Structures are given as C-alpha cells and as structure tokens.
User: Fold this.
Amino acid sequence: MRRPMAASLRFPMSTDIPRLETPRLMLRPFEAADGPEVEHLAGAREIADTTLTVPHPYPVGGGAQWIATHSMAWERRHGLALAVCDRSADGVLIGTVSLAMLMAHRHGELGYWIGVPHWGKGYATEAARAVTAFAFEKLGLERVQGRHFTRNVASGRVLQKLGMRLEGVHRSAYVRFGRFEDVAVYAVLASEWSKTS
Assistant:
C-alpha cells in the first residue's frame, strides 16, 4: 500500500540561503570572498581523491565561480550549499556541506568535505546532522541519502552516525582519476529520522 504524501511541503518561501548553527559550527551562505579559501582547502589532493566532482588541481577563480551558482540553486530549490565555519575560531572556514534536492520526489542527497587540517574532529557529522534535520523538519523531504567511495571509510561512518542504512553498493559506478570506484549508498527516511532525533 502506498503511503500518502503530506498535504503540503514545508520549505521556506524566502529566497535567502538559510543559516544553521550547531554547538561548534556556523553553517552560513558562502560569500565571494570565500573563493580563495575554498580553492586552498578543496585544492588538497586528499579532498579531490574522496569526492566525485571537486577538481584537482583546483583552478584559480574556480571557488568564486562555484559560489556564484549557489543563490540560483537555492531559489529553484535544486540545491543548498553552506560554508562550514568554526565558531570557536572567529568563524574560520573549514569546509562545506550541501544538499542536492529533487523536490518533486521529496528527495535530498548530502555532500560534504572538511579541510584536511580539520579532519578527525567530528565536524562533518555535526554539519551533516544539522542539514539533514533541516531537510526533514523545514523542507519536508521524505528521504535523504548519501553516497561515498567504499574505500572512504570515514565518510561511511558519518552517514552511519546519522542513522542512515546501507542500501547497497554500486560496483564500478564511476571513474575517478583513472580508476573505477565502488560506491556505497546510504539513506534515512523521515519516519526513521523522527524516531532518532
């Protein structure tokens, strides 16, 4: 039996990109001035190696070009990208968290990277948890998923900590830097999230 859809979606009508706070982090809209730091952090080979689309080397000016796409993506409810900033270090930029959205299907997909100097501190989990809560509680999504290269075990732990279930592994799904990558797919549904939050 099919589950009925909610009568209406709850996404905010504002075209302003939202700001979210966690105990240690400020998740805010990117600014053009963040471009060089995006290039610096995302330009590390370790970041590109564990993501599908981050370029390496990161081109000069590429950070600003990427940031310029955010407003339109949010206005159209196609995507949300937020700067992950450390509240205890004067808001220094440490990474990004994003949500690609298919509103017709009430579906979202998490993406994130944290700069190498900030690894191992739980920032990715904290940021991803805040965006997942926003997806369910404010955007009215039914499903949020995340994918990672199977060799990137740390990213899998982030998704597991969010209460996501492993739904399968897509073998040789993508080519990255000349090698085939197996990709694990995790997801959590709104009803499951409400029981854990």
Q: What stands out?
A: The helical segments are 35-42, 45-49, 62-67, 70-75, 123-137, 153-161, 190-196. The chain has seven helices and eight strands. Strands lie at 20-21, 25-28, 79-86, 92-102, 107-114, 143-149, 165-176, 179-189. The mean pLDDT is 93.
